[in-house]
Amino acid sequence: MKRVGRYKVSCDKMPKSSFEIEYVNGILRNIQFMDRQFFDKFWSVLDEIIEPFDKDLWEKNEATITFRDDPYTFQIIALPVQVTYQKIVLWYDLYLERYGAKYTVGNNDAGKTKGIDFTPALITFFFDCTEWWAKNKTIGQYCGQINNIRMGYKNKRNNKADHPMGYNVEYERKLDSKMLMDYRRHLRDNCGLKPKKDGAGNTVDWVPKDKQGE
User: What is the pTM of this model?
Assistant: First the structure.
């Protein structure tokens, strides 16, 4: 299925050069390039670079390829779409593919998308997520939980354990010492929490860093 798409294309032989392209319904609509030489060299084969890897780009957010027999390796990254209606279209298409049903766009959905990143990878992560904050697969819930989505997706990309986004004492009790250290690091670095201790110095809870109780 052809969707809205923004891509950044860079090349290992010209590391300081790149260009961005934008498709709407499969039609090239916009180009921004940093280096004219780089753009001129690869413009004629643009579709050959992009098209065969469209599926990988949407599922993994990026692709690295070697073009033809030339010693050029390209990195292609799917960027967040910027225009409101394009965000809605991207969500609608991915929702339809995932659930086999049309998404009903709410009256306030468009306004909620302002300033929010919409990429295939982030939306797909949200659809896959089973955390409590991702139970409702709606645009409003996606926009409201975008920070949790970004952190969860970052952890997944870094091959970290898929820890819950927040403190869960039952989950903590099941961890071995190595995983426990990793979970506590996750709570600090990714959840913005710090340990709350009792008078004996034992951790009894994890709370936001701007609250009392160390």
Answer: 0.57
